[in-house]
Protein: Flavodoxin
Organism: Streptomyces brasiliensis
Amino acid sequence: MLIVHHTPSPNCQAMFEAVVSGATAPEIEGVRVVRRAALAATAPDVLDADGYLLGAPANLGYMAGALKHFFDQVYYPCLDETRGRPFGYFVHGGNDVTGAVRGIEAITTGLGWRRAADAVTVTGEPGKADIEACWELGATLAAGLMA
């Protein structure tokens, strides 16, 4: 599983750490979890993974530019080879994540990826329930990939 993230703030970082903790929980067996910063993730990373977990903040009413850059780099090289693969995502925003969610949903629909878990969207400081939802997101995606 490939986790592509842009986590510049403490709030995004806390959500990312919870996702990773869930994806690498001891009961998850046989799933290799690869973490890549959105600006460093490549088409070969995407092609080598069986599923994807994306995370980023909402900036200026849209997904963070780093995640958009990731999609721009991998869209056409991965379009045909990754159709039907499962994905999930988390988004953090100061007051609104609507544009970011719409952008992620549109691009992943174009890629033909299959959402395998409900998105975790948080505005403001993540609470305990938000962090638990991120843990569940990571665990759910990883468990779905177990051999």
Notes: The longest helix spans residues 128-144. The chain has a mean pLDDT of 97. The chain has five helices and seven strands. The domain at 2-144 is CATH 3.40.50.360 (Rossmann fold).
